[in-house]
């Protein structure tokens, strides 16, 4: 994959990976992840689309979150990427999907035709407020593995593991791996993003940008995710819905071909 970047409105460099050929698809990952977690999805889309997989600020190819971090800064970033790449399609996951919702609610993105949202966590506030004290305590002591465990346990996104199995996986497989420094970076970006997710509200459901929208849901995702999806369906009556059978919140790594197939059908219809 090639890499490119754009300067956001506050001067922060936002990097992204590029693969494929065809109409542009921008991928925006969620919390505790980066563009690397969507590499298989990007590759699967690349036979029909030019895929721009963003590293959101605070990780990977991009600059720091910054002292004035907010979801509006994230909107600035994605707006710049969409403009530079002239992409008509946007796919966003989890916290990244909250950014995408805020983008289309508050900005005019005239070139954006279709938006796919994978499980935006509208109703994560209670869970985040409950888990963040233990997460912060683990981070303060430098125990990034414990912080990661607190995060995924509190959000019920253990991806089929028990807490004990996930702790073993962290200690015995992930922490000794070359990927561990990236995980540390993702944990360090979590607190500011969790604060923004806790405050998130659509406010007015009048969208300034009106692309066709598809909501992607895993049928094994936790209740607060399904409640969030129901709320979106209620307030965005024309939204399309695609259910990933046998999947939860991480189909991008657990079943990337399945997820890519759903996106191909949705974006391909808009070519």
Q: How would you describe what is shown here?
A:
- This protein is of the alpha/beta class.
- The chain is built from ten helices and eight strands.
- Strands 1-2-4-3-5-6-7-8 form an eight-stranded mixed sheet, with helices on both faces.
- Helix 1 (39-45) links the parallel strand 3 and strand 4.
- The longest helix is centred in the C-terminal third of the chain and has 20 residues, at 180-199.
- The chain starts with a strand and ends with a helix.
Strand content: 15-25%
Question: Would you list the SSEs in sequence order as H and E?
Answer: EEEHEHEHEHHHHEHEHH
Helical content, roughly?
40-55%
How many β-strand runs?
8
Structural class: alpha/beta
Largest sheet: 8 strands, mixed
Oligomer: single chain
Calculate Rg over CA atoms. Answer: 17 Å
List the helices and strands and how they pair.
Blueprint lengths: L1 E6 L5 E8 L3 E5 L10 H7 L4 E5 L16 H15 L3 E5 L1 H12 L7 E5 L6 H16 L3 H11 L8 H12 L5 H20 L12 E7 L4 H13 L4 E5 L6 H4 L1 H13 L3
Parallel strand pairs: 3-4, 3-5, 5-6, 6-7, 7-8
Antiparallel strand pairs: 1-2, 2-4
Helix pairs in contact: 1-10, 2-3, 4-5, 4-7, 5-6
